[in-house]
Write a structure and sequence with these properties.
140 residues, mainly alpha, 2 helices, 0% strand
Length: 140
């Protein structure tokens, strides 16, 4: 494989890294927006719950109806809390996977640079008419 091919592969790897990074940033921004939406929804649900409690105290005749609405709100709030927990767990998994992939890409980049340096050294030796060194690093 020629140096130009290796450089092209390196550039492609860097482009892939940039795409992965941009994708990660988009996903993180999307998760932050979803999290903010969930927090706003949770705040609205909490406000609704407080309103229901006040109405229950002031209107004894509709106490049964308000109790049912309060129970429904509690279920929705619990469902929203469960969804929030699942979202946070998903985000944690996504971060771990992204970090793992990024580390693998960094390792691959380091190996590529080392191989390119060895190749450059050998090409320089050949160009000077020297006998290239016979180390086994090039084979790996």
């Amino acid at each position: 494989m020629s140096t130009e091919d290796r450089i092209l592969r390196l550039e492609n790897a860097l482009a892939t890294l940039a795409e992965l990074s941009a994708d990660h940033e988009r996903r993180a921004a999307d998760q932050e927006r979803r999290s903010a939406d969930q927090e706003r929804r949770s705040a609205r649900l909490e406000e609704s719950f407080l309103t229901l409690v006040q109405l229950t105290r002031s209107h004894n005749e509709s106490f049964g109806e308000l109790r049912a609405a309060q129970t429904e709100t509690e279920h929705k709030l619990a469902a929203l809390a469960d969804a929030q927990i699942r979202g946070e767990e998903s985000m944690k998994e996504l971060r771990a996977e992204t970090n793992r992939r990024f580390s693998a890409l960094v390792d691959a980049q380091i190996r590529t640079e080392e191989a390119l340096a060895r190749l450059t050294t050998r090409v320089g030796e050949i160009g000077k008419g020297e006998q290239p060194s016979q180390d086994n690093d090039m084979a790996s």
